[in-house]
Every structure is written in C-alpha cells, then in structure tokens.
Amino acid sequence: MVESKKGILNFYFKSNLLVRILIGLILGAIFGMIFQNATSAIEILKPFGDVFIRLLKMIMIPVIVCTLIVGASSISPAHLGKVGVKIIAFYMATSLCAIVIGLFVGSVLQPGIGLELAHIAGVAKEAKSPGLVEILLNIIPTNPFGSIANAEVLPTICFCLFFGIALAFCKDSESQAVRNAADNVYLFFEGMSSVMFKVVGWVMQYAPIGVFALIFIVFSKSGAEAFGPLANVTLSLYIGLALQISLVYCVACLFVGLNPLIFIRKVRPPMITAFVTRSSGATLPVSMETAEKDMGVPRSIYGFTLPVGATINMDGTTIYLGVCAIFIANVVGMPLDFAQQLTVVITALLASIGTAGVPGAGAIMLLMVLESVGLKVEAGSVIAIAYGMILGIDAILDMGRTSMNVVGDMMGAVFVAKSERELDEEIWNS
Length: 430
Ligand code: ASP
Hints:
The protein is mostly helical. The protein is built from 19 helices and no strands.
C-alpha cells in the first residue's frame, strides 16, 4: 500500500518542477477556456488556489526577516574600505535606476490593462495611499515585533537592516565574547534561512496544483483574452532588462573609459549560466572565473564585490518588481498613484537586498511589494488570482531577471576595478 502510494508520489516529485508548473499553467488555461464560466468547477477549484496563496503568505515574513538579516550582516565592516563603500554605492545606484526603469516601462506599456479581473472575485479592497512624509515616517517601526507580527513590510525591512548591520559590526568586534555571540546569532539566522528555503521548496511542490486552479479561474471567466496581458508583462520585463544594459551599464562603462561592447561580449558566460540556473548564487563560480580570466579584475576586488553582489544586488529582480506591481495593480483595476509608485521604489530597492540568489526568491519579494502599496494578497481575492498568473510564468521571468542580477554584479566589479586603476587592461582588451 505504502509502496504504491510512494510510486504515485514519485511520479509527481521526480518530474521537473518548472515543467510541472508550466503544465499547470497550460492545462489551467486550456480547461478554463473549455469550461467557460463554469461556476461549480470554479467553486471546487478555488480552495486549491487559496491553499497555495496561504502557504506563500505563511513563509513571506520569516523568509524576509532571515534573508535580510543574513544579507545585511554578510558585509564585514572590516572589508568596507574604499572599495566596499564604492561597490555598495554603485549597487544601490544601479538598483535605483533599475526600479525607475521597471516602473517607466510598466507605465508606458501598461501590462494588464484591458484584463480587468475585478468581476472575478468582486471589487478588491481600496488600496490606501498615504502621503510622502507619512510613507517615509512609517518606515521606522515603533514596535518592530508588532510590525513583524502584522506583516508591515517596510518597518520590518527597516528593523532587519538595522539588526543585520549591527550584527555585522558585532561579528567584527574587538571583544572575543561579542564576536562569539554574534557568530552564534548569525549562524542562527543563516540556519533559519536554510530551513525557510526548505519550506519554500515544499510549498513550490504544490505550485503546479495552485497555479492550475488560479489560472483555470482566470481563463474560465475571461477566456483567451488573458494571454495578451501575460505576454505583455513578459515583454515589458525583457524591454526593461535591455534598457538597464543599454542605459545604465553601457553608460557606467563609458564613465570609466571602457568599451561597453567588450563588456557585453565578455559577460556572456555568467549571463547565460544565470539564465539557465536562475540562481545568482549558483552562477558565482562562473562569474568569478570570467572576472579574473576574461575581464582582468583582480581577486582582491572580485573576491569581495561578486559575493556581496550575489547577495544584495538584484537589478533584474528590481525591474521585475516594478513591472509586476504595475501589472497586478492594472489587472485588479487599481492603477498605482505617485505615492504608491514611490513606495514601490523604496520597497523594491530594500527588497532586492533581501532577495536570496536562488530560483524564485523574487516572487516572494513581489508579495511584499504588493502588500506595501496596500494590494493585500489574500486568499480568494482578485489580487491573489493576478499574483497566481505571474507565478505561472515565473520561470520565464526568473531567467531574465537572474541574468541581469549577475550582469549587474559583474558591472560593479569591473567598474570598481577600473576606477581603482586595478583592471588588467591587457586581459580586458584580449
Ligand atoms: N533567481 C534570482 C537570483 O538568483 C532571484 C529572484 O528570484 O529574483 O538572482
């Protein structure tokens, strides 16, 4: 009995997860189009979608807390000399450009317009948009544990950043006792992070079923017209990524007197590896080898800048967050106003620091960005359905954004090496 059960489960678990999610998406779309407005099928499938959304929300805050603390504390203040300050400023500046590009492309192409899902799950709750001063003030939590408990995104991020940076200083303390204690705290959060990603892995095993249910509902209600907006969101992301290369990285190259075409030619191996693995972390060995052997960046620079970049610098993810926030806001019929876009800028910038360099991490950060602008992803809500649509094509989006995350890290390493006059020009020009 147990054996045969294992056999059936093996069939499911042994197959490729990405393929299964894609199959969930395709089957959901096909069956949805066949069974137009099938109220009873929708009633039956709705809880399956709801389970998926609830599972994702269950892991959201623990993942953010652990990964942000680990991310912020991984920058050792002792290494934070001129190179450290320069690279962090560079990463922050390019991420800021990325989120502005993401919002710009989203505002021009308006993915999601025309597919108003509000009729599917009723009118979504009114998104609140506080004023600028309020947004900035609300970032500082008066009770961080209250903020964590209430899933208030920006105050949670703010506290975790303080905590992580303080932890980094304690890890470098002159007192052995403080260092030991800080190492234990760090190991605790690092362990927690690994545990949470184990849970994420399990939740993702359920994704094909959840995506099937959510997509079925969309296509059953809206028919084939849901394809266009999904293609539009993919196109918007890839246009954003192309703009990031041509406007930001090429200008950065020119700024330090380097030929951008050489950079684009040489960055291809890590870029392709990232595209295939969808993980900045897993691409790190290839990035390091390319930086040293093909680009002439010395180990003293890439040894610090690339691992830090793979942890905190996520330009592609930031563009994705901007484009998808606009898509979801459009689909639910509540376009983002200026204050909300500003909140997206701040949240996405900070979220990218906390995005782990593993496949799919950005999709969890998207939950957080949506919450920060008042688009609460609640089970059964229209926002959850729109989010499910994005998740259905996450693999395609993840490939592009991870590539750009890695290209951004490589650009940072080259930029700092050149501006510190440590780039080996002979290797660079070879
Ligand atoms: N997969 C991305 C990376 O490894 C993170 C993300 O999901 O956005 O860089």
